[in-house]
Amino acid sequence: MLASTPLEKKVVLITGASSGIGEATARHLAAAGHQVMAGARRTDRLAELAREVRGANGALDHCALDVTRRDSVESFVDAALDRYGRIDVLVNNAGVMPLAPMADLRVDEWDRMIDVNVRGTLYGIAAVLPRMREQGGGHIVNIASVAGHRVDPTAAVYCATKYAVRALSEGLRQESRDIRVTVISPGFTDSELLDRGGAVEAQAAARAAARQLAIPASAVAEAIGFALDQPATVDVNEIVVRPTVQG
Ligand SMILES: NC(=O)c1ccc[n+]([C@@H]2O[C@H](COP(=O)([O-])OP(=O)(O)OC[C@H]3O[C@@H](n4cnc5c(N)ncnc54)[C@H](OP(=O)(O)O)[C@@H]3O)[C@@H](O)[C@H]2O)c1
After folding, report:
1. Is 181 exposed, middle or buried (0-12, 13-18, 19+ CB in 10 A)?
2. Is the CB of 40 under 6 A from ligand 1?
3. Known catalytic residue: 123?
C-alpha cells in the first residue's frame, strides 16, 4: 500500500541507495508514490530493496553505480531514461567519511573522499543537467553535511569535500532559472558511514558520539521529500537536519 499520494509523481534518481540515508530516501520516496532509480556498488542490497519496495506496491528499479567513474554515472542516468523516459530529480547522496588526523597522511583516503564526495557529485550534475535543461526543469539535491558548515579535527578533508558540495550547489543555483537546487546537511545520522576506513581512534570516537546522538536516516529522507514536494516555483535551497542534542 502506498503511504500517501505525492503532489506530483516524479522520477527520482538516488546515488548511494544501498544503505543509510540513500536507502531510507528510496523507501520514503517510493512509498510516497515517486518512481525511484537506485544506484550503488552493492547491487545485492539494491535488489533486496527493490523486492521490498515492489512488495509494497512501490516503483523502484536499480542499477550498478560507481560515482567515481563518469561512464558509470552516465549509464545510471541512461538506465533511468530507458526505464522512465525522463528525469525529474537527482539525489547526489553517495559519500564516504574515513576520519583521521591530517598528520597521518592517509592520502589514498583523501583521494577517495574527493573522488566520491566531490567528483561523484559533479559527475551526477554533468549527467543530468543537459537532460533537465531540455525538459525545461528538474531538481538536483546534493547531500552535504553539518561538516560542510563547521570544521572539526580528524574531519578536515571530509569537511573540505562537504564545503565544496555547498559551494558548487550555490554556484549551480545562481546559474539556473529552471532547475531547483537543494543542499541537505545532516548531522549525526544512523547509517554505515563510520564502518569504512579511517584511523581506528578517530572512527571509534565518532561511532561513540553517533551511538549517543544519531537520528534515524528516515528523518533526513523526510526533509528531502519536503523539498521535492514544493511547487516548481519554490526552491528550497538548504536544510540542516541534526539531532536536537548535537552541539
Ligand atoms: N550519517 C551521517 O551522520 C551523515 C551526516 C552528514 C552527512 N552524511 C552524508 O550522507 C550521505 C550518505 O551517507 P550515509 O550516512 O547514509 O552512509 P552509508 O550508509 O555508508 O551510505 C553511503 C552510500 O554511498 C554509497 N557509495 C560509496 N561509495 C560509492 C561509489 N564509489 N559509488 C556509488 N556509491 C557509493 C554506498 O554504497 P556502496 O558501498 O554499495 O557503493 C552507500 O550506499 C553521504 O554523502 C554522507 O557524507 C551522513
Report:
1. buried
2. yes
3. no
Average pLDDT over every residue of 60-64: 98
Q: What is the pLDDT of residue 8?
A: 82
Q: What residue ranges do the domains of the chain occupy?
A: 11-239
What average pLDDT is seen over the chain?
A: 96
How far apart are the C-alpha atoms of 112 and 34, rounded to whole Å? Answer: 32
Select from 69, 191, 218, 224 the residue to mutate for testing ligand 1; criterion: most ligand atoms less than 8 Å from CB.
Answer: 191
Give yes or no for a contact between 235 and 226, defined as CB atoms under 8 angstroms apart: no
Sign of CA dihedral 24, 29, 32, 37: negative
Which atom of ligand 1 is nearest to 17's Cα?
43
Say if CB 153 and CB 193 are below 8 A apart. Answer: no
d(C-alpha 227, C-alpha 187), whole Å = 18
Query: Residues of 10-26 as b/e, b for ≥16 C-beta within 10 angstroms?
Result: bbbbbbbbbbbbbbbbb
C-alpha cell at 95: 559519500
For the domain bounded by 11-239, which CATH number is listed? 3.40.50.720
Ligand 1 probe mutation, 14, 15, 21, most atoms within 8 A of CB: 21
Whether residue 46 has pLDDT greater than 90: yes
Q: Cell 542490497 maps to which residue?
A: 45
Indicate which atom in ligand 1 lies nearest the CA of residue 195: 20
> Whose alpha carbon is nearest atom 31 of ligand 1?
66
